[in-house]
Amino acid sequence: MSIKLFDSELKVMDVLWREGDRTAKQISDILKGEIGWNMNTTYTVIKKCIAKGAIQRSEPNFMCSARIAKEEVQAAEAEELIGKLFGGSPDLLFASLLGSKKLSDEQIARLRQMITDLK
Amino acid sequence: MSLLHQSIAGGVLIAVILVIRSFTIYRLPKAVFKVLWIVAAARLLLPFSIPSRFSLYSFIRKLADSDTEKLVSSVSQNNTGIKPQYAPLLQGIFPAVSGSAAKEESFLSLPQICYLAGLCLLAACFLVSYIRCQQKFREAIPTKHSAVQEWLKEIAAGLQKVPVSRRRIIDRCLKKRASKISVRVSDQISAPLTYGTIFPVILLPKRMDWNDGRTIQYILDHEYNHILHFDALNKIILAVILCIHWFNPIVWVMYFLANRDIELYCDEAVVRKGKKETRESYALALLHMEEVRKLSFSLYSYFSKNKMEERIVAIMKIKKNSILSLTFAAALVAGTTTLFATSALAEDSTEKKLSKQESNQNEITVSPTPAPTEKDNEKYKFENDTESYMLSNNQIYTAPRYVMGEDGLKRDSEGNPADQTFASPTEKDRTYDFEPGEEEELRFPTHSEIEDLDVTAHNHWTEEKLKQVIEDIESGKIKDSLVKVINTDDGEYLELTDQNGNKMYGTFIACPEEESDYYLKEQEN
Question: Which value, to the nearest 10 degrees, does the dihedral of the CA atoms of residues B513, B515, B517, B521 take?
């Protein structure tokens, strides 16, 4: 069985693989030092891992343990943000370099030609 | 100013900007559009505006005003001889909310509900997507990529070099903020972006060509300009404007175009920084990023081709600013702003203090004033402290109370000079000479005259009401030519003539002896 995880989720899993079982609080402290995540962010990511079945949670203190081995994990593909809500336009709310709509090959080729023409 | 007025005025301004933009987007520095959008945003957001003699709305108002004058003069002609009588009526209508406005108020509830529902829905959409995105962005991981580290060092070094001169202080503040930049990588986004206003973060997608140092450089420069321009905040402001004016289609156009122009402005800043060849390599870098991105999303690839095309052409046509283009740009911005972003200039100094709302209200109340006909059957009713005016459709208008100032001019309750447009008494009118002896026609009202009148018209007045009438005569509100004192066997009647020639009679009853002196004194004077 293999689970698709995002980099953020992999970061949390890394901690568990490296350090063994830890409480959510401990994971949060470690990640705060390593990559500057705040507690809420870490907790959200842990919850996502639990939902995907990568982490098992046990009481007390929200003890987390890895349910899968490092080798079983695949990198997840980037998913389109907001997507459904705004017709896929994170560029409308955040200063995004490119729009959320993709160009076709022909369109890219045509624009490339245009650059040469305008040079 | 009501929201609708604001939206319409803003819409006119946006329409003008759209025209300017479509003709000059490739020719003028992008700062022009940035300023114009800011002006439009201010017009849409701020409930007040700066009055200007050169405003488009001043011209419109002048037109409207001349129409009103025509109306008033035609009305006066209808009632030759009793012209001044009409004046208080007009005064009664003008300050009060006109019939149409009153209607609006009572029917507004449903549109209001629709408006609020739309606003909440749109705001909720924005909020949900904003919070979701923010959440994902926070999960990004700091990068140690060499190109990024070098760029950050460069920025830091650049900040050191900024000279501490007065002109640069604002610039320095901006750059200090920029020194807090962190660069992170996320595998959950497909294009580089910037978020965070106070602690700006540049996010790079994991899936991009990390070996292409120059492209990374361009991306970071572009995003750095977003940070310097506070674009994270600007985008939120644009979203707020859209939420407030969601019913206005042209505001939607503004929303999308202003968002595009934010990018164009940053493109321009990056290209201007480099040499002439930068244009081409920057445009190619943008396209290359699209290509790399495309690999992961082969599913849906429809596209707003205009957007990218416009951007590429804009990049390729960036030139060094010439004095000519700068002058033209400045003139364009100044002209558009004064013409379309300002409001009508109020007529006199008193009105200047009024908010635009009130002046608008005047504009509205002017037009629906019907030219009264004989059928209208207006009546005066004198009640306690105010003069009311009743139309045949049972709407009651109340005239403002004026008092005589020390300078002999009418003042309203706040001591401001009364609007002199109507019923301004001439010197002759203002001195009241009450001499019943001069009246030639001393007679009883005939039986038929009394019959024709409404009961309220010839009832007995209390002492206060009579005093009121006398005061109104003195202050010029009721012209003395329209008043007669008629001596009858029963005592004295005061006869008032309205503009239709209808006569009303009042008499003074049940007054104690000493109080009746008041009236007699008036006669002696």
Answer: -170
Whole domain around residue B160: which residue ranges?
3-67+102-344
Contact A115 B312 (CB under 8 A): yes
**Of the partner residues A36, A90, A103, the one whose CB lies closest to the CB of residue B294:** A103
Cα B301 off chain centre by:
42
Which one of A44, A77, A82 has the shortest CB-CB distance to B133? A82
User: Rounded to an integer, what distance in angstroms lies between the CA atom of residue A88 and that of residue A86?
Assistant: 5
Please name which of B95, B80, B91 lies closest in space to residue B497, comparing C-alpha atoms. B80
pLDDT at B518 over 80: no
| Integer Cα distance of B56 and B53 in angstroms | 9
The whole-angstrom separation of Cα B341 and Cα B250 is 16
Q: pLDDT, tens digit, for every residue of B86-122?
A: 344 334 333 333 344 444 455 557 888 899 999 999 8
- The answer on B333 and B288 residing in a single domain is yes
Q: What is the CA B390 to chain-centroid distance, rounded? A: 32
Whether residue B268 is contained in a domain is answered as yes
Q: How far apart are CA B378 and CA B399, in angstroms?
A: 14
Q: Is pTM, for the whole model, over 0.90?
A: no
Q: CA nearest B508: which of B453, B470, B452, B455? A: B470
Q: Name residue B390's beta-bridge partners.
A: B379, B396
Which amino acid does the sequence have at A67? R
Span A3-75 CATH architecture: Orthogonal Bundle (1.10)
pLDDT at B19: 92
Longest CA–CA separation in chain B, Å? 114
Regarding whether B391 and B290 lie in a shared domain, the answer is no
Residues A10-62 pLDDT 10s: 889 988 888 888 888 899 999 998 888 989 999 999 998 999 888 888 887 78
Residue numbers of A between 9 and 48 with CB closer than 8 Å to B = 11, 35-38, 40-41, 44-45
CA B473/CA B477 separation, integer angstroms: 6
- Best of B129, B227, B230 to disrupt the A interface (most A CBs within 10 Å) is B129
Q: Which of A11, A40, A96, A112 to mutate to test the interface with B (most CBs of B within 10 A)?
A: A96
**Structural domain count of chain B:** 2
Structure confidence by residue, pLDDT tens digits, B157-198 = 877 666 666 556 667 777 777 678 889 998 877 788 888 888
Q: Say whether residue A109 is in contact with chain B using an 8 A CB cutoff.
A: no
